[in-house]
Amino acid sequence: MSSYDFLAGCYDRLTYDVDYRAWADYIEKHFKKRGLPGNTVLDLACGTGSLTYELARRGYEMIGVDLSPDMLAQAADKNRQVDGIQPIFLCQSMDKLDLYGTIDACVCCLDSVNYVTTPQKLRRAFERIHLFLMPGGLFLFDINTPAKLEGLDGQVFLDETEDTYCVWRAEYSKRRRVCSYFMDIFCLDEDTGLWDRGEELHEEYAYTPEELVEYLQQAGFRDIRQYGNLKLRAPVPGEDRIFFTARKDK
User: Fold this and answer.
1) What is the DSSP letter of 248?
2) Alpha carbon 242 to chain centroid, angstroms
């Protein structure tokens, strides 16, 4: 089972309840609050480009990076509707990020950082992001907390729409600090009227906030702050999702 090869074609159907406009609103609040050197933004682990699209339509010059060619194909198709400067999409892993120029901000959303299951690779990813940020540039990302990932152990979930059916179960390994999602997906083929079946495995690493702050500092970031889930306040105990912002020195 591999990640996103099959899921890419029905990812948007299964994530219909994600309010990307609200996410873009939240990101913009940080941009305006902290200020950016310019308006070139990297959407790292952009997936099917829904957040890329929301930010592009607000006038940001977007670069989308993802490791899955199938997800990027969906993203490129979706973002052809953008007026003005079309987003650029690159197929790369976070730890080998290689851009053609500098960026003014980087966002990495929907717990994509957790999907880097090797701490050394995440450290390198933070270093690469810092390298391409303009002085004064902002890095924003979110994580699923260790408590949330541990709490998923043994749970089974069902996501269903008229043309998509997904059953997934979660297993948490304390030794590996990894939550594994085993997914069975059924998607209706609009052309044939038949159902296609796919299996995928997704994994998330349980990083502590303290570890992430250390990685950011080692990469050269300063002014590191933590926030609650889509909030402009500090996280409260029991919060399942935490946002981080970090600045590259001017």
Assistant:
1) E
2) 13
pLDDT 10s digits, 174-196: 999 999 999 999 998 888 989 99
Contacts of 169 (CB under 8 A, 6+ apart): 154, 155, 156, 157, 181, 182
pLDDT tens per residue across span 106-161: 999 999 999 999 999 999 999 999 999 999 999 999 999 999 999 999 999 999 88
Torsion of CA 237, 23, 154, 235, to 10 degrees: -10
DSSP state of 39: S
With beta carbons less than 8 A apart as the criterion, state whether 136 and 247 touch. Answer: yes
Total residues found in the chain within this entry: 250
Q: How many other C-beta atoms are found inside a 10 Å radius of the C-beta of residue 97? A: 20
Q: Degrees (nearest 5) of the Cα angle 207, 97, 134? A: 95
User: Distance between CA 142 and CA 147 in Å, rounded?
Assistant: 15
Beta partners for 202?
A: 181
Q: Which CATH architecture has domain 8-144+208-248?
A: 3-Layer(aba) Sandwich (3.40)
The CATH H-level superfamily of 148-205 is: S-adenosyl-L-methionine-dependent methyltransferases (2.20.25.110)
- pTM equals 0.94
Give the DSSP letter of residue 81.
G
Query: Crossing angle of helices 209-219/119-132, nearest 10°?
Result: 40
**Cα separation, 197 vs 204, whole angstroms:** 23
